[in-house]
Automatic annotation (TrEMBL), chain A:
Keywords: Cell membrane, Membrane, Transmembrane, Transmembrane helix, Transport. It is a multi-pass membrane protein. The chain crosses the membrane at residues 7-29, 69-88, 100-124, 151-173, 194-224, 250-270. It is found in: Cell membrane. GO terms for biological process: transmembrane transport. Belongs to the binding-protein-dependent transport system permease family. CysTW subfamily. It comes from Pseudodesulfovibrio senegalensis. This is ABC transporter permease subunit. GO terms for cellular component: plasma membrane. Signal peptide: none annotated.
From TrEMBL, chain B:
PANTHER family: PUTRESCINE TRANSPORT SYSTEM PERMEASE PROTEIN POTI (PTHR43848), SPERMIDINE_PUTRESCINE TRANSPORT SYSTEM PERMEASE PROTEIN POTC (PTHR43848:SF5). Keywords: Cell inner membrane, Cell membrane, Membrane, Transmembrane, Transmembrane helix, Transport. Required for the activity of the bacterial periplasmic transport system of putrescine and spermidine. The lineage of its organism: Bacteria, Pseudomonadati, Thermodesulfobacteriota, Desulfovibrionia, Desulfovibrionales. This is Spermidine/putrescine transport system permease protein PotC. It comes from Pseudodesulfovibrio senegalensis. GO terms for cellular component: plasma membrane.
Length: 286, 255
């Protein structure tokens, strides 16, 4: 082998081996474990079984799944409604302001999510900032706590994930050709019509990407309901974590992980479709 | 040219994003132990933090993991990006999609599946599993950063190098690497931040003999709020602010 090929061989090989061992193999192991039986002492027994999947179609798990879908969908909608006008205004700003304002979105995006969740405690607790503000304004006579409620979990998930919605939306809106909006206006469309027939379809890839970036992590962020919800509002993430570390039922935890992965792949497939459609639309334009 | 309507759209979101962080930083300087009412400015929690060896060790561990993971992920990621950009080989498409799957995978799935791998291999959670996990989730981001820069290249430069007799390695070392350097550095910084940022994957891969910051904070917060945790969190916010500034400066001058 000459040096030409050696570099090529090593560079392809090195990356491939790493991805195979730490990327592909763990996924296959999880898939495999989900079809094995549970063993009291050794955690898993090498015997084909659908017990894991049977456990997760149990009403208790389905209730957790329903509850976490409710929290995740709700968070995604709140983020979308809050982020869209924000991203729109940001994308249409003058260049100088835009740079700084965008950086102000990046900072929370990159700050440790646990630290940020912890920061929320200062706002929500009985003697926290919001409570003090409400007392000062005279809305309530006594300090109130917002901790350990469903609202706190929603606020926590929205707070940690909002930047994940803003950034894809911003990119999509910035890429959009502003002349198309002008053209729609010139042709007599009102603001609502322009928005629903021009802006919204053109920014759809950003909306889909943003919703995915919020929805998927929202299902898995077990520490947010742990810290702010007092463990009363479980997410699929809490379930998986508990199956592995507390209940020691690996097949069930793995089965839940497989379901979550399939959900992600389905969403990615849908995103691919919407992106393909947008691409076709662009292509159809002269 | 900021209009009133824009302020109305932007300001509430910024207040929402920054008020809790500002409150946390402010309370880290509060003299009151139970961080309720303002009792005056103090540095003492920072001093106490400095003498809290458990937290300082966790901080050192976090930094070690982040620097090592970022460096290994950058080396592998740059190689992968160059490979995907230059060579056509079997499994290339698969590799590309797999990188995308890793990038999009929910953290909890990645964490659990890596935990399975290490437990079945008989390796106890700790330093090495943690490092391997962090490298793995950082690689796709390095590949994406570097690959997008490679795509902006003039391919003739590489052809010229080859025509002049440069070996694959020489082309990589003397042509591709210098030209992609800003993206390489950005990829490293991105990986470093991702590693410092991660909670969920680390939760599964680290053991009691290798504590790292976010998990240390997690367990301390569960026991009740402690003022030195506020100081530590404030420092972590400060470091992130600096890193974001640094990466923005790097991206600013692309050529």
């Amino acid at each position: 082998m000459n040096t030409h090929d050696r570099f090529r061989f090593l560079s392809i090989g090195g990356g491939m081996v790493w991805l195979a061992v730490f990327g592909l193999l763990p996924g296959l192991l999880m898939l495999g474990t989900s079809f094995l039986a549970r063993h009291e002492a050794e955690l898993i027994e090498v015997r084909f079984s659908l017990e894991g999947y049977r456990t997760i179609i149990d009403p208790i798990f389905l209730k957790i799944l329903g509850n976490s879908l409710y929290l995740a969908v709700g968070t995604t909608l709140i983020c979308l409604l809050a982020a869209y006008p924000f991203a729109y205004a940001l994308a249409r700003m003058g260049n100088r302001c835009k740079r700084v304002l965008l950086m102000l979105v990046m900072i929370p995006f990159w700050t440790n999510s646990l630290v940020r969740t912890y920061a929320l405690v200062f706002m929500l607790k009985t003697k926290g900032v919001i409570s003090a503000l409400l007392v000062w304004l005279g809305v309530t006579p006594r300090p109130v706590s917002f901790m350990y409620t469903e609202a706190a979990v929603f606020i926590g998930l929205t707070y940690t994930l909002l930047p994940f919605m803003i950034l894809p939306l911003y990119t999509a809106i910035e890429k959009m050709d502003g002349k198309l909006v002008e053209a729609a206006r010139d042709l007599g469309a009102g603001s609502w019509r322009t928005f629903f027939h021009v802006t919204l379809p053109l920014t759809m890839p950003g909306i889909v990407a943003g919703c995915m970036m919020v929805f998927l992590p929202a299902l898995g962020m077990f520490f947010v309901p742990d810290m702010l919800g007092g463990g009363k509002h479980l997410l699929v993430g809490n379930f998986i974590k508990n199956q592995f570390l507390v209940a020691r039922d690996w097949p069930a935890g793995a089965a839940a992980g497989v379901v979550l992965t399939l959900l992600m792949l389905a969403l990615m497939y849908m995103q691919g479709i919407s992106r393909g459609r947008a691409g076709k639309k662009r292509g159809a334009r002269p | 040219m900021i209009r009133a309507r824009d302020v109305l759209r932007l300001l509430p979101v910024y207040i929402f994003l920054y008020a809790p962080m500002a409150a946390l930083v402010a309370f880290s300087f509060n003299d009151s132990k139970f961080s309720t009412a303002w009792k005056g400015f103090t540095w003492k929690w920072y001093a106490r933090l400095a003498s809290n060896t458990q937290l300082m060790d966790a901080a050192l561990n976090s930094l070690t993991i982040a620097v090592l993971a970022a460096s290994i992920a950058t080396i592998l990621g740059v190689l992968l990006a160059v490979v995907l950009f230059r060579y056509r080989f079997r499994g290339r498409k698969f590799m590309q999609s797999w990188l995308f799957v890793i990038m999009m995978s929910p953290d909890i799935v990645l964490g659990i599946s890596l935990l399975l791998l290490f437990v079945l291999a008989g390796i106890r959670p700790g330093f090495l599993p943690l490092l391997a996990g962090h490298v793995t989730f950082c690689i796709p981001f390095v590949v994406a950063t570097v690959h997008s820069r490679l795509k902006g290249f003039d391919p003739h430069v590489i052809e010229a190098a080859e025509d002049l007799g440069a070996s694959e390695y020489q082309t990589f070392r003397n042509v591709i690497l210098p030209m992609t350097m800003p993206a390489v550095v950005a990829g490293w910084l991105l990986s470093f931040t991702l590693s410092m940022d991660d909670v969920i994957i680390s939760f599964f891969l680290t053991g009691p003999d290798y504590e790292i910051l976010p998990l240390q904070i997690y367990s301390m917060v569960k026991m009740g709020v402690k003022p030195d945790v506020n100081a530590l969190s404030a420092i972590m916010i400060g470091v992130t602010v600096c890193l974001v500034f640094a990466s923005q400066l790097l991206m600013r001058k692309p050529k």
